[in-house]
Design brief:
Layout lengths: L2 H10 L4 H8 L1 H4 L3 H7 L4 H7 L3 H13 L8 H22 L4 H6 L4 H21 L1
Helix pairs in contact: 1-2, 1-9, 2-4, 2-6, 2-9, 6-7, 6-9
Length: about 130
């Protein structure tokens, strides 16, 4: 099952967009599915107030696991995750015209639209990392 298929299945089963993306990535990012669901639990619905899309937030959390910045003073790692986050956000904005949940809904995009895109994006990043 692809990350996209798993993420949409999780969302269909009641998990929020951020949980769905992060948990669908669990086998690839060093976190178990339940941990992913716990840490992303409050991030759906645009941080529960219509702000940054949960699918984008989940994707950025997965990027953080794929590009860990955990050591004090590790400027290379800090720059790497910063650049990965900026690129992900830029691509998401280019695809949908905005990154805010409320604006996405007003523009007619569904959660499945944003989840599908974010999942495909992360899966592509994972493939590139595997090739390195």
């Amino acid at each position: 099952m692809s990350i996209k298929e798993k993420a949409i299945e999780l969302h269909d089963n009641g998990f929020n967009c951020a949980q769905s993306i992060l948990a669908a990535c669990s086998g690839h990012i060093g976190l178990d599915e339940n941990t992913c669901k716990m840490v992303a639990g409050g991030l759906g619905g645009g941080l529960r107030c219509g702000e940054v899309c949960g699918a984008l937030t989940g994707a950025i959390m997965a990027l953080g696991c794929l590009n860990p910045y955990t050591k004090e003073g590790d400027l290379d790692a800090a720059v790497k995750i910063s650049n990965a986050t900026k690129e992900c956000t830029k691509c998401f904005r280019e695809k949908f015209g905005c990154i805010r949940c409320l604006e996405l809904k007003k523009a007619g995009f569904s959660c499945d639209d944003t989840i599908g895109y974010a999942a495909d994006y992360i899966e592509e990043i994972m493939k590139k990392k595997d090739e390195e």
